[in-house]
Structure formats: C-alpha cells, structure tokens
Amino acid sequence: MSVQTITPELRQWIVEQATAGCSPDAVLKAMLASGWQEDVAVQAMEETLATYLRERGVSPDAAVAAADVDPRPMPAPDLRDSPNVLWAGDREVSVVMTMQEPRVVVFGGLLSDDECDELRALAEPRLARSETVRTDTGGSEVSDARTSEGMFFQRAEHPLCERIERRIATLLRWPMDHGEGLQVLRYRPGAEYKPHYDYFDPAQPGTPSILKRGGQRVGTVVMYLNTPEQGGATTFPDVKLEVAPVKGNAVFFSYDRPHPMTRTLHGGAPVLRGEKWVATKWLREGRFD
Ligand SMILES: O=C(O)CCC(=O)C(=O)O
Ligand SMILES: [Fe+2]
C-alpha cells in the first residue's frame, strides 16, 4: 500500500468543509470515499482543525465545549491532578507510568499478594490450552500465537472476582457490567502471546455476532499474578514499550476505535525462566450480559 501524505491542498479542503458547516463525520466519510486511508484521514482532520483553531486563539477544549460534542466516553483513571496514588474504593493503587499515545497506564499494587495467590489457586484446576476468538467465524480455536493455558471466570463468579471487578470499575470509572469476566493465563517457560490487538477486527465476518453482546472492547487490564524469574514482559512493539511483569501490578491500555492507529498492538514476550501468571480484564463499550 502506498503511503499517503497530508498536503496543503488537503488541509485547505478540510478547513473549507468545516467552515461550511459539514460535520467531522461527514468530512471523514467523504475522504474515505475518495480513497484516503482512515488513519491518514483522521490524522489530517485532527491536525488541520487543531492548527486552524490555535491560529485563531481558540483552545481545542473550548472548541469541543462550544460545539457541544461529547468525546466518546472511555475507561480511564482520574489523573487530572497528577496523583501518584489513587483510591480504588477499597485499596490504594499507585501510578507507576503513564503514556498518552497509545493510552497506557501502569498501576502498582492493584492486587495484594494474597489476592494474586488466591486467584491463581481458584483458576489452576480449570486451566486448559488457551483458545483465541476467531473473528472469521465467531468461534474459538487453539492457536500457535498463544502458547499459554487459560480459563475464564463468569463475572462475579467468586467474591474475589467481584472485589477485583469492583476495584477496576472504580479505578477506571467504567461500569462493572461493561466488562467481561476475568481471564487467567499461565505461561510456562517458552510460552508467549504474539503481538495482537484486543479489539475485534471489524473486517472479519464473525465480528458482528461477537459485538451483539456488549459491543467492542475498548480497554484491557492485564494483572500480574506472580513475578516470573526472567522474561514475560508485556510488549507494545509500535512504541517499543515493555512493561515488566511484577506481582500485584497491572498494565491498562485503551483503544477508542478498533483500528491499528490506536497503536495498541501488544503481546506477552516469551517467558525465559519460571512461570508467568496473569489475569486479564476486558472492558466493553456497552453492557456485557
Ligand atoms: O500476557 C501478557 O502480558 C499479555 C496478555 C494479553 O495480551 C491478553 O490477555 O490479551
Ligand atoms: Fe491482549
């Protein structure tokens, strides 16, 4: 695929459409219809309109407020006053690292050591070779991309699951019923989870049926239930970020559209020594019943 660039003519055209009263959605649709790639089109619109407003002394926040456009609500911790510690309803959680693009926040001490151990013990008897959702059919299958063993809890299946779900809901300000049940994975030495996106690929024929229950995934929390002796980081290859798996810590990332431009490609690097245990919580845009 050729690389498309944002030309002065394209910028000019976008400003003309916007000042003529076309909605951003309509401008984007027109660009897609004339062959622009979605990520280039969105970036061109965002850049052009931000520059246009800045030149006229209007802050983007004021413009959004004036246009009464609600940006899509997303799960996110409240980091407005740069806190180093957050209250998650029943426990203090520390903020270890944040990144804007992709949106990534690493939390320290989301789970206690005892909670990690108890969750592992509850999950262990039910572990089976991990299956991956097949978006072509909507079913699931064992895949080489994922050499871990895993299991799913129902939401609130156990008081411990419920406590963790409530804590995450408080921390990320996202309703408990907009999330899937916890998934627990065990990686043995050599096991890995190759880089992937957690959202369901809209181009796949099985996706519409998956989306009927809860809509798209919009965020992921990967909680580390132990500290592997070596290896097993959660990697974000697009931005060359590696999050070390440390017992009780968690990495949260969100994606406001099911598109690679969110740069949320991520994977579990091979475990080199010891085992790696994680619990994953996926957040949906709607109620997951
Ligand atoms: O094991 C990891 O670090 C990542 C897990 C993951 O990507 C997932 O469960 O979707
Ligand atoms: Fe993932």
TrEMBL record:
Fe2OG dioxygenase domain sequence ranges: 178-285
SMART domains from the UniProt entry: P4Hc
A Pfam entry, by short name: 2OG-FeII_Oxy_3
The protein's required cofactors: L-ascorbate
Record keywords, A-Z: Dioxygenase, Iron, Metal-binding, Oxidoreductase, Vitamin C
Highest taxon listed in the record's lineage: Bacteria
PANTHER family, A to Z: PROLYL 4-HYDROXYLASE ALPHA SUBUNIT, TRANSMEMBRANE PROLYL 4-HYDROXYLASE
Protein known as: 2OG-Fe(II) oxygenase
High-level lineage: Bacteria, Pseudomonadati, Pseudomonadota, Betaproteobacteria, Burkholderiales
